[in-house]
Design goal:
By secondary structure, the protein is of the alpha/beta class. The chain folds into two domains: 18-145 and 283-306, Response regulator (Rossmann fold, 3-Layer(aba) Sandwich); 147-281 and 319-341, Response regulator (Rossmann fold), CATH 3.40.50. Helix content is 36%, strand content 21%. It contains ten helices and 14 strands. Helix 4 (147-161) packs parallel to helix 5 and helix 6 (215-227) packs across helix 7. The longest helix has 17 residues, at 176-192. It starts with 17 loop residues before the first strand and ends in an 8-residue tail after the last helix.
């Protein structure tokens, strides 16, 4: 099978008008408009890892920035705190709704109970939750994605790129959501080349143990897989994935990023030549679209799903070594067409 040769690794924000600290975390509010609207706009509450994770949370922030720029209204983004409870999360969302923000989005499955509680208290506010945590309420939009489909394509890329016939997967936390990433990846690898071995592991059993927020844990896990001959490692681990990418760069093997195009992230620039591709889900688009639906007076509710067909999950093409490999691109495009047409049923567990 044709391989991709490894090459040697080459070795902002908007101003806040106010910063308010509370027991539930820090809040940043900003507005580009000198004329305030009657209601405030989009607010997001971050998942574990917070802003700056170069992944999931930062993608949500990009959606907030797009909405702020287009609609010219005040926005807010709130950081999580260590050891917080569902009640703390709910208080955070309630506070944002009480201040007049609409919509209010909880970033991550961990906000399920909090979103449900806050939505009951503020029925005239639209709430959103990103990821697989269906909340049944008339004023809640469940922004979910077919992560397993993008992960399948990542598996195709890994199987086509390995020179050792061993690839790795590092999941942040052992939960059903991350099982989707692993299942799709492993299926994509095996469908492409059954002889390739997949080494899979999860960093922690719970998010509270740091599975999504500990680059050191990600680095250690990746190093262990690389010692076992893995030369492509896919991380679905939030901030911990930065450690996986660092380990891949240090050992001159490939990393596959997740959620956003990690090849383009400034904080990962020194490792970018080791990032083969990223399995993306367009959290920014989902968050922006929810804000737009509220701005248009037709708030989205219920399950709002993004997949390969809608273009809200995909593989990035930023690395020229990946984008310019015609044979690899053909294999990925063929797999994508089969998934969209139903010819390939991607497992989610």
């Amino acid at each position: 099978m044709r391989r991709i040769s490894r090459i040697t690794v080459a070795g902002a924000a908007t101003a806040s008008l106010a910063l308010v600290l509370s027991a539930c975390g820090s809040t940043s509010t900003s507005s580009d408009s000198s004329e305030s609207k009657g209601d405030k706009g989009l607010a997001i509450a971050y998942d574990v890892g917070g802003k700056g994770d170069q992944s999931f949370n930062d993608a949500a922030y990009a959606g907030l920035e797009q909405a702020k720029k287009e609609f010219g209204y005040e926005t807010a983004d709130v950081e999580p705190t260590d050891g917080e409870t569902d009640a703390d999360k709910e208080q955070r969302l309630v506070s944002l709704a009480k201040q007049g923000y609409n919509p209010v989005v909880g970033v991550g499955y961990a906000y399920a109970a909090a979103v449900k509680g806050a939505a009951e208290k503020y029925p005239d506010t639209t709430f959103g939750i990103v990821d697989d945590a269906t909340v049944e309420a008339d004023n809640v939009a469940d922004l979910v994605f077919s992560e397993e489909q993008a992960s399948y394509l990542a598996g195709v890329a890994a199987a086509e790129s390995t020179e050792t016939n061993v690839v790795g997967f590092v999941g942040g936390v052992d939960i059903p959501l991350i099982h989707k990433f692993r299942a799709g990846y492993e299926q994509g690898v095996k469908d492409t080349n059954p002889e390739v071995k997949v080494i899979s592991q999860f960093l922690t059993q719970t998010a509270e143990e740091g599975g999504f927020s500990s680059p050191d844990k990600g680095k250690s896990a990746a190093e262990g897989q690389i010692e076992k001959k893995a030369d492509v490692v896919y991380a679905a681990a939030g901030l911990s994935g930065q450690g996986v990418i660092e380990a891949a760069a240090a050992n001159k093997v490939w990393a596959i990023g997740v959620d956003s195009d990690q090849y383009k992230h400034e904080a990962l620039a020194k490792y970018k030549d080791s990032i083969l591709t990223s399995a993306m889900k367009d959290v920014a688009k989902a968050v922006y679209n929810l804000a737009k639906s509220v701005e248009d007076g037709k708030p989205a509710t219920g399950i709002v799903k993004g997949d390969l067909k809608t273009g809200e999950v995909s593989l990035s093409n930023s690395n020229p070594r990946f984008a310019d490999d015609a044979e690899l691109q053909k294999a990925i495009e063929t797999a994508k067409e089969k998934i969209v047409s139903g010819g390939i049923k991607v497992k989610s567990s």
